[in-house]
Amino acid sequence: MTQYIYQARVRWADQDAQRHVNNVVYVDYLQEARVDWILDGPHPELLNHGITVVAQQVEYVSPAYFGGDSIIIRLWVSRVGGARFTVAYEVSQGDTLVARATTDCAPYDVTAHRVRRLTAAERAWLDDWSGPQITFRDLPQVPWDRGSGVEYPVRVRWSEVDACGHINNVAILTFLQEARIAVLEEARGRDGWGRPGADISWLVAAQQIEYRTEMPYRIEPYLAELVVLHLGSSSMSLEVQIRDPRLDVLHAAGRVVLVCADGQGRPRRISDTVRAALRPITMTAGGPYGD
Questions:
Q1: Which residues form a coiled coil (predicted)?
Q2: Which residues, at least 6 apart from 107, have a Cβ–Cβ distance to it below 8 Å?
Q3: Is the pLDDT of residue 194 over 70?
Q4: How wide is the angle at C-alpha 119 spanned by C-alphas 113 and 120, nearest 5°?
């Protein structure tokens, strides 16, 4: 199997309150590796003419840190279709595997504002990088009605617009994180998590996002709605949807598994305070990560 190898340098600003590389930053590293791979190949038009990210999935295996070894990303193509391909990644720091991930991509006609088919030459190049598919643990899927969750306004920054004039895929993941933190901040009561040195934290174990339609920049906020899909003894699964409230358009839907942990990263029971606060927006009980 042929792999493209990319080295990412961890910046000081990439850390979160627990001094781990933030979960969203991993996806930024994946984007940098993917762009580097495309521009280094014979078909830079995949970027010049437009490419859209359809979906992403990440499983976080171990924390990464600032001040240690560089982040090494090994990249290959796990699937090629007529108008879509999947890029697979293994992310390591030193000898430690820290994450596995996939990105579903589609070539995009910027002028016509639609997905286009891959050319024969593009398909042949992608086939040269073919490798195995990555199997992830299933994230919970629970049907729920709009209005069941907590709403949070999402305001876009001008710096989050990409070269195609849309909100960049990594920025949308940041919106999901922002909504999640805001809702949990309300739920935590007197629990001291989320602060540097706290003995309680929430670790992201896995997340998946589907991008339904592009988000243009605008001053008016978009609307995020969050529900709890599963609530276990030490983990919970959430879903966040981002919509345009004026046009009733769904732009993105993301699901994430969070694990409540102590200061050493060991799972601990979710407090009764948080359980009581989240009960009105919890769809089912139980959890997928050992609960």
A1: none
A2: 46, 49, 50, 51, 52, 83, 115, 116, 117, 118, 122
A3: no
A4: 170
Show Cβ contacts of residue 140 under 8 Å, excluding neighbours closer than 6 positions. 229, 230, 237, 255, 284, 288
One-letter identity of residue 23: N
CA atoms lying within 13 Å on the CB side of residue 114: 3
* Residue 179 DSSP code: H
Three-class secondary structure assignment of 58-113: EEECCCCCCCCCCEEEEEEEEEECCCCEEEEEEEEECCEEEEEEEEEEEEEECCCC
Q: Do 105 and 53 meet the contact criterion of CB atoms below 8 Å apart?
A: yes
Q: What is the percentage of the chain residues whose pLDDT exceeds 90? A: 68
Structure tokens at 18: 């627990």
123, 169, 161, 36 alpha-carbon torsion, rounded to 10°: -50
Q: Is residue 137 a contact partner of residue 119, using CB atoms and an 8 Å limit?
A: no
Question: Which residues does 50 contact at the CB level (< 8 Å), separation at least 6?
Answer: 107, 108, 109, 110, 164
For residue 161, the 8-state DSSP code is B
Domains and CATH numbers, the chain: 1-136 (3.10.129.10), 138-291 (3.10.129.10)
The C-alpha atoms of residue 75 and residue 102 are separated, in whole angstroms, by 9
* Structure tokens that stand for 115 in this block: 């997905």
